[in-house]
Design a protein that fits this description.
By secondary structure, the chain is of the alpha/beta class. Helix content is 27%, strand content 30%. The protein has helices spanning 13-25, 41-51, 91-102, 118-126, 154-165, 184-195, 232-237, 241-244, and strands at 4-8, 53-58, 61-71, 74-82, 108-114, 130-133, 138-144, 148-151, 173-177, 209-212, 220-225, 247-252, 265-272, 286-293. A seven-stranded mixed β-sheet has the order 1-2-3-4-5-7-6. Strands 8-14-13-9-12-11-10 form a seven-stranded mixed β-sheet. It is globular, with a radius of gyration of 21 Å.
């Protein structure tokens, strides 16, 4: 069977702890010992509560994991481990690929390795990470990511939205900015596909806000159009606070209004490409810039 990697939260703490204990327990004894060996069920739950993580399953058994820890501009990978019996079967590479997808919109994915484990450092370098520093015995590595994407057509815009949506979790706020017809709703349609929510996503201009329930265990999508709102008071009247923690909230025309809804947010700016290609009936290219703002 192939490796399946899925997004997880605190509910999967027991599986993550089991993988961490088996994976890190099989490594050579280090001085000082790896912090991961001191984890317990409560500490793993706390780690997963912030942004969740990824769990790799092979033949129905959890065999790999990583905790995702967002920092300004970067996504840090913590407690990255694969059980000994599953090593050499593509589990680690699948986790890296999924982590990079989850980091869409951030400038880098970062990780800390131990210099006493040169094979581990070599693994990260083979996956396009470069050494950026560190204090002995720790080595810091980063893989740089793009935050600007070209979308020459609606299909590409929707696919980018789906990629971003697959990495969002309950409590995320997305603020969309772009002129009329820029593709904000098309991008949100992709978000809905990536999240796996019910109903076709259309512009909520005349209803202001529309809720798309999740088809599975993921969060609902709350889609807001702030174009006709007169200010912060009218946005507050929508009572979005009631669903912010349990849903992904997307606000079109939200710049200058929606930033106060959450400490952290993903800002999406969609612009028509100038000078690269002429707009035609078949081609009206856009450029999408993503930026995560992470509260402290």
């Amino acid at each position: 069977m192939s490796v399946v990697v899925r997004r997880i939260g605190p509910e999967a703490a027991a599986d993550v702890l089991a993988v961490v204990q088996e994976a890190f327990g099989a490594r050579p004894v280090l001085d000082p010992p790896a912090d991961a060996l001191g984890e317990n069920l409560d500490s793993v739950r706390r780690l997963l509560a912030r942004r969740g993580g990824l769990l790799a399953v092979l033949d129905g058994k959890p065999v790999g994991c990583v905790v995702l820890d967002p920092t300004p501009g970067a996504l840090v990978l913590r407690r990255f481990g694969v059980t000994p019996a599953a090593q050499g079967r593509g589990v680690a590479s699948a986790l890296v690929d999924a982590a990079v997808e989850a980091a869409t919109g951030r400038s880098a994915v970062r990780v800390v390795a131990r210099e006493e484990l040169p094979g581990t450092v070599a693994f990260w370098e083979a996956h396009d990470f470069v050494v950026t520093g560190g204090t002995s015995p720790y080595v810091e590595l980063a893989r740089w990511l793009g935050t600007t994407f070209d979308a020459p057509d609606a299909e590409t815009m929707r696919a980018l939205g789906a990629r971003v949506g697959s990495g969002l979790v309950a409590g995320d706020l997305v603020v969309l900015t772009g002129e009329l017809g820029a593709g904000k709703t098309t991008f949100t349609q992709g978000l809905g596909e990536g999240l796996g929510v019910r109903g076709g996503v259309t512009s909520p201009t005349f209803v202001i806000a529309r809720v798309h329930p999740a088809l599975g265990e993921g969060p609902d999508l709350v889609h807001v159009d702030a174009y006709r709102l007169g200010g912060l008071d009218e946005l507050d009247d929508l009572d979005l606070d009631a669903s912010l923690d349990s849903a992904v909230t997307v606000v079109e025309w939200g710049a200058g209004l929606a930033e106060g809804l959450a400490d952290s947010r993903l800002e999406v700016v969609i612009e028509r490409t100038v000078g690269d290609a002429p707009a035609t009936d078949e081609l009206d290219p856009r450029r999408v810039s993503l930026r995560w703002i992470v509260g402290q």
